[in-house]
Amino acid sequence: MYSSGDVVLTNIQFTDSFEIKKRPCVVLFEELGNVVVAGVTSNKGMQGIPLTIEEGAIKDSVIKTNYIFTTTESFIEKKLFSLSKEKKQMLYGSLLGKLNNLK
Question: What is the pTM of this model?
């Protein structure tokens, strides 16, 4: 079982191909074996929440708040680290802002 704010390594099937790649993601929530996550990229030019080496990332990265998807526990290979309370608050604030703009 994974907790909100866990950064995990998961297998992702990309929508534009049948290719499956291992990628880091942040767990938003888990329910009944389904895990909703936000993707993480090392492309610092992307919009999102910055994630640094000092926080546990392998490279300075960005949590992509515009790339949310559902995976399963069986696709997750391992937990890498957990976000700090402050970083989780930044992430949730950003996501809430996006949801509040939907009308």
Answer: 0.90
